[in-house]
Amino acid sequence: MSINDWISVGSLLVSGIAAFVAIYLNRSLATQNRRLQLATFRIERNTSHAQVLLKHPASLELIGINANAMREYNVSPEDVIFLLLSVNALTAYCEEKHVSIYTELMENDFRQRLFDNNKTRKVWKFARHLVGGSVRLQIDFYLRYFYNETYPELELSEEFRKQSTNLAYRAWESWPPFGQG
Fold first, then answer.
1. Which of 122, 131, 128 is closest to 73 using CA atoms?
2. CA 125 to chain CA centroid, nearest Å
3. Distance CA 137, CA 102 (A)
4. For residues 127 and 87, is the Cβ–Cβ distance under 8 A?
5. pTM: predicted TM-score of the whole model, two decimal places
């Protein structure tokens, strides 16, 4: 083989490697773009939801939050919505970093101070109705462990917990602070 043949083979090899790198980078960027679009959508959805609740606080009753009970606890709709937005931000952060809500609560001083406040725990009794199941249960577990707060979902029968396929209920059995052994 002559030097020109080697140069041709080398340039073909470099071109092939460059093509594979370009394909990999393109797929990686597309994945990152989808994640960013999903995160943006969630933030916009949660913010618009909170704005509607602020304009129409009576709509909280549509999802089972009793305005009279809120007044008895000295909790305002603004308090509930602030905590909801804070929990939504926590959820987005945990999804991005691939950590559990419970782990982040254990390691984040701001969140610990937030839930250490008795007023926040009162507000949580209402805001928890606006939060998804596994997120709600992880925060409930945290509050039960550190503040002895109880919520109906934590008092489910042993039989239901065993039959449940929900990750949060399975976590009940396996997390060290809550495990039965």
1. 122
2. 18
3. 9
4. yes
5. 0.65
Helical (H) or strand (E) element with 93: helix 77-97
Number of H helices, E strands in the chain: 9, 0
Neighbours of 52 (CB within 10 A): 12
Q: What CA–CA distance (Å, rounded) separates 49 from 47?
A: 5
Which residues fall within 8 angstroms of residue 46, CB to CB, at 6 or more apart? Answer: 84, 85, 88
Rounded Cα distance between 78 and 107, Å, is 27
DSSP annotation string for 141-154: HHHHHHH----GGG
Q: Is 99 helix (H, G, I), strand (E, B) or coil?
A: coil
> pLDDT tens digit string along 112-149?
999 999 999 999 988 888 887 788 889 988 998 888 88
Q: Which two tokens stand for residue 151?
A: 């919520």
User: What tokens were used for 50?
Assistant: 């909170």
